[in-house]
Design brief:
Layout lengths: L1 E8 L2 E7 L14 E5 L20 E9 L7 E9 L6 E7 L3 E2 L8 E3 L5 E3 L4 E6 L10 E13 L12 E5 L3
Antiparallel strand pairs: 1-2, 3-4, 4-11, 5-10, 5-12, 6-9, 6-11, 7-11, 8-10
């Protein structure tokens, strides 16, 4: 505000003024999405080489965050795929219970399908989100455990085999 003029009449002061208004963005929150794992590389070991045998199971904890998810249901929020398959071996995943580490009302994830199921070279949906409402309905901030194992689908030759497992989180 600025004073443009001032005149005194009998002890009273008259002033003119002008003002300008601003729309002020107090906080700007950029969208973000991330997934990290708390285990590192892991090895699945078979104690037998015959078809039908299952390897040991390794649990990996995935830390998932994001703040621009839709409020509508979204399938395949968390998915996985292999860079290549290993002959005679099927990699399998079983999603555990999602643990919300953020505000009450944040998004909850649910496993796409119960129990162990195969993960191949195409993206396989592991966890989905349902319709959410409220002020935190677009925010995901939690931990998702996934158990991994391998199953021999045929008799296996001795050896060490490696593939790359990619776990993905998406917000749309």
């Amino acid at each position: 505000m600025s004073v443009l003029g001032l005149t005194l009449f009998g002890g009273l002061a008259w002033a003119d003024s002008a003002e300008v208004n601003h729309a002020v963005a107090v906080v700007v929150v950029q969208p973000g999405i991330s997934i990290t794992e708390e285990t590192g590389d892991f090895t699945l070991t078979f104690d037998n080489y015959t078809a039908g045998t299952q390897s040991d199971t390794r649990q990996v904890q995935y830390r998932i965050k994001g703040n621009s998810f839709p409020t509508s249901a979204l399938d395949g929020v968390v998915s996985a795929k292999l860079s290549q398959t290993i002959d005679g071996v099927e990699l399998q995943a079983d999603v555990g219970s999602y643990d919300n580490l953020g505000s009450e009302g944040n998004i909850q994830l649910e496993e796409t399908q119960s129990g162990f199921h195969a993960v191949g070279t195409a993206l396989t949906s592991l966890a989905d989100k349902r319709v959410t409402t409220g002020s935190q309905a677009r925010v995901l901030n939690g931990r998702l455990p996934i158990d991994w194992r391998a199953q021999a689908i045929e008799d296996l030759s001795a050896g060490n085999y490696t593939t790359t497992l990619t776990v993905t989180v998406k917000d749309g």
